[in-house]
């Protein structure tokens, strides 16, 4: 009776809880990198310290401010691109780990049975403990 209820919980509520926890962690990682926001603001200035618009300034000051804004946009695009690539790599790796953990969760109660069957068949593993 106890073993049966443990299996019912493991493959029912326990599996559902594990999947919800892993999915929540994946969503937190996606939210951490905010890839959608980074794509929308890809060419926005990185940090605007003093490169505002001054239409009445002399032409050399306006050119310098334009160059500052251009450099800031290029620098911001490079940084955001690296963060997007790194974030996508991390999200894909975490998704693979989520799938592996769910497969292990499903297979874990079956491993002792597999061990007994392998022992009964006379299978010897190549390593020793």
Give a description of the structure.
The protein contains four helices and no strands. The protein is mainly α and 129 residues long. The longest helix has 49 residues, at 59-107.
How is the topology of this model organized?
Blueprint: H1 2-33, H2 35-40, H3 59-107, H4 111-121
Helix pairs in contact: 1-3
Main sheet specs = none
Tell me the structural class. Answer: mainly alpha
Mean pLDDT: 88
Rg for CA atoms: 27 Å
Number of helices in the DSSP assignment: 4
Total E-strand runs: 0
Poorly predicted tracts of residues: none
Order of helices and strands: HHHH
Oligomer type: single chain
Form type? elongated
Distance between the termini: 34 Å
Helix residue percentage: over 70%
Which band does the percent of strand residues land in?
under 5%
List keywords for this structure.
mainly alpha; about 130 residues; about 75% helix
């Amino acid at each position: 009776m106890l073993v049966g209820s443990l299996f019912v919980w493991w493959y029912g509520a326990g599996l559902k809880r594990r999947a919800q926890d892993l999915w929540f962690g994946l969503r937190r990682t996606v939210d951490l990198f905010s890839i959608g926001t980074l794509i929308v603001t890809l060419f926005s200035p990185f940090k605007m310290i003093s490169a505002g618009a001054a239409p009445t300034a002399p032409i050399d000051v306006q050119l310098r401010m334009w160059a500052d804004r251009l450099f800031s946009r290029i620098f911001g695009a490079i940084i955001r691109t690296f963060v997007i690539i790194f974030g996508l790599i991390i999200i894909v790796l975490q998704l693979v780990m989520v799938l592996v953990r769910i497969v292990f969760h499903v297979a874990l109660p079956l491993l002792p049975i597999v061990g007994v069957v392998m022992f009964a068949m006379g299978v010897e593993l190549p390593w020793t403990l």
